[in-house]
Each structure stands twice: as structure tokens, then as C-alpha cells.
Design a protein that fits this description.
This protein is α+β, with helices and mostly antiparallel strands. The chain is 41% helix and 16% strand.
Length: 682
């Protein structure tokens, strides 16, 4: 295949198709930020032989003594830097970020102007020295300037560059044949404009229906646009016309994606292997953690949407997902590839083991989405359809969508209400990966602190959502944004202040109704446990019976405070696990086993992460008591708890289900496999 790949720069003709970008507003906050007056030199003299084009820039390599001549082709957008697109004389277009350009004016300063004034209007000629060219999140390239003195405005009458010809000033070459469409399609493909590339390849195919190269190139654009059936169709035609290895590989990949997209059937073992492999890191020249694979754990798999769910208005909540019919337990509802994700090590080139604060991740995600929409404004519709809390009228929203206008304020508020925190704590990764992302369709699931009926988990940049119990026709499908592990006050701040959610789940209603006296009593009892009982149990070799008695008393008192709602008494979960530990440590395994089984019965439908801990302890004690048959039953229970939310319902009548489940737990929860091996389970 011939794509004539070059650097990932944007073709100028692509940008010209989206002239609405010229209407961008320099949105910023209402504070009086100002911008340094950029250097303007009317008598600038430079050696034209030292000019470098965008296509010759190399990442992390400053071309000493060289300069870039370019012109501004979009209005600047004020974010954490000033962002725009620039074009060089050859017609290459790249993203440009200006840092350290804002400051608060001091009295008497005259060399600065308000950012609300028109700053660097479209067509402004720039000379940029000491060019920094680097990758940012998602392997996107960007030209960056940290020093205002390195950027110079060139006077339009400056004769130093009078002989420079700008390719986009020339009349566009008229396309006459399939080869012309092929070349134009390749230009668009190399600049990641797959829609325009697909259009040109299609026009070429109309002229030459049996052109294998055009068919394969169009199939590749279809894959990038998630048009899996079209990709498969093109590769099948190409395969009939001409067979080679590359066509076969594209066809096999297209078949896999088409099957995933149509049937919601995924090879989870393969996907986990892919995720682990792409999560590997290495050190760059600066000692930072970077991905071994170019794009990191961003996975190449298809979206899926179950036909049995729909979006409807939900009373008191706005839009939400609703079941169109009865849906069985552990049914796959949706698989969605994130619109954009940012991983922790991609923020300022940090160590992957460092924990990034939420603000830095969201700032980076905001920047990435803004850059994506500037370069590909047709994606504005996907982002702007989400809830943003700005109370825009329907007509205002429609106008923004129709204009494809990049509105920073709207992007920031959309992310505030819709970004997903990424973590993979449940999986057996060797490195700690965190991040944040925007997922379009999953953002339309509403929240409940408990009683959620849909589980979700991330693998790389894919989110999978399954029912966790049978769903009735017309029932709302809800997920958990912040669970009961957070106290009511913490949940309230997050849900109400940050998300504008007035949660009406059973737990929130109960906690709102509880008196201040009950809340203070709970805190007092938990403080005694955490500061007095727990440390002694963990540190001492021999457990004092009085300590066990004191712990039992605290559990009883906490339970009495919610005696009318025993299924909502979560404060004692850890205490009951610790009580079982104390009895086992004192040599009374039978009592410990009884306590842990009671805890399992009490919490088995509420908190699966804690249930795993409880079952692990039950298995350990069962083995110590040589209750092997009972231990085998508990292995089956935990296998289903771990595997079914990922792979779907396991069929007991199929003897191979344990073997299949154990293959998955070996990758994500190997403790189970250790128990299975001890008990000689398949």
C-alpha cells in the first residue's frame, strides 16, 4: 500500500474546508489577563537559507540557528497556553502553543495589551526561533514556544521574504483522473483527515472500480472511521481482484472489528494480553516514563451498542439510558472507545508511578480535546451534545453544533460533568496507571451511590458496561460515580457541587434523614476502632479477649444505629472482617468462619471489592479446617464474582466454564488460581 506518509501535520486544504474556524472566539475567564506585545520588527533581516519547514522538524531536536517562517490560519484560543494553527510556505499545517505569554499588568506598563483584543489575526506572518517540536498526549505533535522573545511578527512589506511562494496561494490543481484522487486522498490520510481521504478514494474508485490500491486505502480509512462493514466489503473485493499479505491482514482485522461491532463478542483474554503488553513502559533520555508502544494502552477494538437500550428523558435527571425490554443479568450493554484519554505519565512527562492530581489531568485532557476540535471541528457535535451545566437553550446548542465552533467554556464545563477517572486497581498490572478520559455515550448513564444495576470497567481506553442483575422493561440503567465508601459529606460535595446531582438513592435519603446525634455517634465509635482497637489487633501477637469483646460491642452499637435498615449498615464491613481475623488469630477458626459467612450474606450484593477480601479469608480458614468440598464451592462463587462482570454469565451446565474462568483470573486475580491449584480444581 502506498500512503506517502510524512510527519503528522495537517494539510492546508483540509483546514480550508472548515472555514467556520475563522469565527473562533478568544474565550477566557473574566479576570483581566493580558498578553505581552509580541515582537514586531519592520526591518527584520534573516538568511532565507536558514529557514526550516514544518515537514523537516524532528521531535525533541531543536534546530539550532534555524527559524520557521509561518502564518497564522486560525484565531488563537486561550486555554492554559495560547493555541492556534500555523501554516508554512509548503502548505504544511501544525498546532502551535505559546506558553508564558500571560501575566498581570503592573502600573505604568505600556508594552502589553488585553487578550480580549484581536491577537495575531489570521494571516499574520511569524518567524519562530529556537523551535521546540514535541509529542503531546496521544502522540500528537505540536510546535511549542516558551519564550515570547523567540516569536517575531514579520511586517507584510518586508522584502526579505518577497520571493517565498505560499503553496496555498496557488490555484488548486484540478483533479482529472483516479491517480489525482489517490494522491489527494493520501495527503488527507497523512494529516489524519480520514473523512476527506475516504471521499477522494471513493471518487477514484468511481473512475476505476477495480483499482486495488484505492480499495485497500479506502478500507483503511473505514477502519479509522469505525465503518467496519464497509472496510470488510472493500477488502473482500480487493482480495478477489488481487491477493497479497497486506490485504489479508487488513481483511482479518476488519472481520474482527466488524464481528465485535455487530455482535458484541470480544476475545477478552486477547484484549487483556494486548492491554498488558501496551501498558509496558521505558525510560526516555530525560528519565521519564514513556510507553514502549507508540500510543500506549490505547486499544484497537470496535464499539458496540446493544439494540435493547435507548436514551430517554428521565424525570428529575435529564437524559438517561432506558431498557427497551427485559434484559438478563450480565448482558453486555455497551463497549465504547474513549473520545480522548490522558494517562498520568503523559502530563508534563512524569513518572508513571507518580500520582497526578485531578486538576493536572483534566487540564491536559481539556487541552487535547481543544486541539482535536480545532483540527477536526466536525467532532464538536459529539462533545457538545453532553450535559454541561451552562443551561444553554436548545437553539444556542444547535447553533454551536451547526457552526462547529470550538468553544473553550463549553468544553471545560462539559468535562467537569462528564470525564471518567481511569484506574485499573482490579487488574494485575506491574505498574500503577491512572488517568482521565471523555466517553460520549457512557456519559449518558445516570448515577446511584448504591443499587446501581450496571457495572463498568476500563481496559486501556475502552469502557465495558454490563448489567449486574436482571433489568425490567422501562427501567433506568444506572452506574456508580462515587460509592458508599465515601462518607455522606464527601459524596454530597462531589455529586452536588461538582456534578450538580441531587442523588435520591436509598442511602442518600437515609443519611439526609439521620439526626446530627446519630452522625456524631457513628464518628465517635469509628474513631475508637481506628485509633484504639485496630492498631492493637494488627500489632499484637496474642489477641486479648477483652479486645475482641470491645470490637463486638462497637459492631453491635453501630448496627443499632441503623437497625431499621440493616442492608445499609456499611460502617461495620471492615470491622466484621477484622473480627474474623481476631478470632482466627486467637485460634478459634470455626468462630472466624461463621463471622465471615455472616458478613458475606450481609454485603454480597453491595460491595464486590470487599466481598473478594471476605471470600479470600473464608477460603484460607476452610483449608486450615480441611473443609475441602466447602472450599471448592467458595472458589466457584468468587470465580463468578470476578469473571461474570467481564465475560458475561457463566453457564453451569458447561463443564469447561471453570477452565475458561481460571484462564481469565490468572491474568487479573491470580489468588483464585492458587486456591484452585491447591484444591486440584481444573
Amino acid at each position: 500500500m502506498t500512503y506517502q506518509y510524512r510527519k503528522r501535520t495537517i494539510n492546508a486544504f483540509e483546514f480550508a474546508q472548515h472555514a467556520t474556524l475563522h469565527n473562533l472566539d478568544n474565550l477566557c475567564d473574566k479576570r483581566k489577563y493580558v498578553v505581552h506585545n509580541i515582537n514586531k520588527q519592520e526591518n527584520l533581516t534573516l538568511n532565507i537559507q536558514l529557514r526550516i519547514s514544518i515537514s523537516n522538524l524532528q521531535v525533541d531536536n531543536v534546530p539550532t540557528g534555524r527559524f520557521l517562517l509561518c502564518r497564522v490560519i486560525s484565531r488563537f484560543v486561550k486555554l492554559y497556553a495560547l493555541l492556534a494553527l500555523v501554516e508554512d510556505p509548503e502548505g504544511n499545517v501544525e498546532r502551535f502553543a505559546l506558553y508564558n505569554w500571560t501575566n498581570i499588568p503592573k502600573e505604568g506598563q505600556s508594552n502589553i495589551k488585553s487578550i480580549n483584543q484581536l491577537f495575531l489575526p489570521i494571516g499574520t506572518l511569524l518567524v519562530i526561533k529556537n523551535i521546540s517540536y514535541e509529542y503531546v498526549t496521544g502522540n500528537i505533535t505540536i510546535i511549542r514556544s516558551n519564550n515570547p522573545d523567540d516569536v517575531i511578527i514579520v511586517d507584510q512589506n518586508n522584502k526579505s521574504f518577497s520571493d517565498v511562494k505560499w503553496s496555498t496561494n496557488e490555484k488548486k490543481v484540478e483533479i482529472k483522473n483516479a491517480d489525482d484522487f489517490h494522491r489527494c486522498g493520501n495527503d488527507y490520510f497523512s494529516s489524519s483527515n480520514y473523512i476527506a481521504a475516504n471521499y477522494n478514494y471513493s471518487n477514484g474508485i468511481k473512475l476505476e472500480p477495480q483499482n486495488v490500491t484505492l480499495l485497500i486505502n479506502r478500507a483503511e480509512t473505514c477502519l479509522r472511521l469505525y465503518q467496519f462493514h464497509n472496510a470488510l466489503k472493500d477488502t473482500e473485493i480487493a482480495l478477489m481482484l488481487y491477493y497479497n499479505t497486506s490485504i489479508k491482514q487488513i481483511m482479518e482485522h476488519a472481520e474482527m472489528l466488524s464481528y465485535e461491532n455487530k455482535n458484541g463478542k470480544y476475545d477478552y483474554l486477547r484484549i487483556f494480553d494486548e492491554f498488558y503488553e501496551r501498558s509496558k513502559i521505558k525510560k526516555d533520555s530525560k528519565g521519564n516514563d514513556v510507553w514502549i508502544y507508540e500510543t500506549g494502552p490505547r486499544l484497537d477494538h470496535a464499539d458496540f451498542l446493544n439494540d435493547n437500550i435507548k436514551i430517554e428523558l428521565v424525570e428529575g435527571k435529564g437524559r438517561g439510558w432506558i431498557a427497551k425490554c427485559d434484559i438478563p443479568e450480565y448482558t453486555l450493554l455497551m463497549v465504547s472507545k474513549a473520545f480522548k484519554v490522558v494517562f498520568s505519565n503523559e502530563v508534563f512527562g512524569t513518572m508513571i508511578s507518580d500520582t497526578q492530581n485531578d486538576d493536572s489531568l483534566v487540564e491536559e485532557l481539556t487541552t487535547c480535546i481543544t486541539l482535536k476540535l480545532i483540527a477536526e471541528p466536525y467532532y464538536c457535535q459529539e462533545v457538545y451534545q453532553l450535559y454541561d451545566g451552562l443551561n444553554l437553550s436548545e437553539n444556542e446548542k444547535i447553533e454551536l453544533i451547526n457552526k462547529n465552533e470550538v468553544n473553550i467554556n463549553l468544553i471545560v464545563h462539559t468535562l467537569l460533568h462528564n470525564d471518567f477517572g481511569l484506574n485499573y486497581n482490579e487488574f494485575n498490572l506491574k505498574t500503577e496507571i491512572t488517568g482521565t478520559g471523555l466517553c460520549i455515550l457512557p456519559s449518558l448513564f445516570n448515577h446511584a451511590c448504591i443499587d446501581e444495576n450496571v457495572n463498568h470497567f476500563f481496559l486501556g481506553d475502552l469502557i465495558f458496561l454490563r448489567t449486574n442483575r436482571p433489568i425490567s422493561k422501562g427501567e433506568e440503567l444506572i452506574i456508580n460515580y462515587r460509592n458508599f465508601a465515601f462518607c455522606y459529606e464527601e459524596r454530597l460535595v462531589y455529586l452536588k457541587t461538582m456534578m450538580n446531582i441531587d442523588c435520591q438513592c436509598r442511602l442518600c435519603k437515609l443519611e439526609r434523614s439521620e439526626s446530627q446525634e446519630i452522625r456524631l455517634r457513628m464518628r465517635e465509635l469509628l474513631k475508637i476502632y481506628n485509633e484504639s482497637i485496630k492498631p492493637k489487633l494488627l500489632e499484637s501477637h496474642n489477641v486479648d479477649p477483652s479486645l475482641i469483646k470491645e470490637l463486638e460491642d462497637i459492631i453491635a452499637k453501630l448496627s443499632s444505629l441503623r437497625k431499621e435498615h440493616p442492608d445499609l449498615e456499611f460502617n461495620t464491613m471492615e470491622l466484621r472482617i477484622m473480627l474474623g481475623y481476631a478470632y482466627r488469630k486467637s485460634g478459634n477458626n470455626k468462630k472466624a468462619l461463621s463471622i465471615l459467612k455472616e458478613a458475606y450474606d450481609l454485603y454480597k450484593t453491595i460491595c464486590l471489592s470487599q466481598i473478594r477480601v471476605i471470600i479470600n479469608n473464608i477460603l484460607i480458614i476452610s483449608l486450615e479446617l480441611e473443609l475441602f468440598e466447602e472450599a471448592k464451592k467458595w472458589v466457584d462463587i468468587i470465580l463468578k464474582i470476578v469473571v461474570e462482570p467481564i465475560m458475561g454469565k457463566l453457564e453451569d451446565d458447561k463443564p469447561e466454564w471453570r477452565k475458561e474462568a481460571l484462564r481469565l483470573t490468572e491474568k487479573i486475580y491470580p489468588k483464585i488460581n492458587s486456591f484452585a491449584e491447591t484444591l486440584e480444581i481444573v
